[in-house]
Amino acid sequence: MLLKIIALFVIIPLTDLLVLFWVAGYIGPLETIALVILTGIIGGSLAKMQGLKTLRKFQEEVAFGGSPSNRIMDGFLILFGAALLLTPGFITDIAGFLLLIPITRPYLKKAVSNYIQKKQRQGVIHIERYP
C-alpha cells in the first residue's frame, strides 16, 4: 500500500515533470505552456459535456425505475478524468482524456468493476444494499 501511495504522489508527478521538461526542450517552453493550457481548456469542455450527458442519462434511468449504478460509475470516472486534466502534465492529461472519451470508458469501467469485485471477494470492500 505504501508503494502505491509513493507512486501516486511522487513517481507519477516526477515523471510528468520530466516529460514536460523534455517537451519544452523539444518544442520550446512557451509552446509547452500553451499546449498544457490548451489541453486543460479542451479537457474542461469535454468533462463538462460528458458530465452533463451522464447526468441526463442518470435522471432518465431513475425516472423510469432503472438502476443508475452504471451512470454513477461513469460520473466518478468523468470526475477523476477532469481532476487529472487539471494537473499540469502530459501523462496525467492522457490518462484524463482516456477517462473522458466515451469509447474508452467502458473498458476502464469494466477494469474498475472487476477490481472492486475482487476486493469484495477478499473481504477488503464491504457493500451494503438498501431497499
What does this protein structure show overall?
- Helix 2 packs antiparallel against helix 3 (69-86).
- It is built from 5 helices and no strands.
- It has 131 residues and is mainly α.
- The chain has one domain (2-121).
- Largest sheet report: none
- Order of secondary-structure elements: HHHHH
Low-confidence stretches: none
Mean pLDDT: 90
Q: In terms of topology, how is this protein built?
A:
Elements: H1 2-27, H2 29-63, H3 69-86, H4 90-100, H5 105-121
Based on the model shown, name its key terms.
single chain, 131 residues, mainly alpha, flat
Compact overview of the structure:
By secondary structure, the chain is mostly helical. The protein is 82% helix and 0% strand.
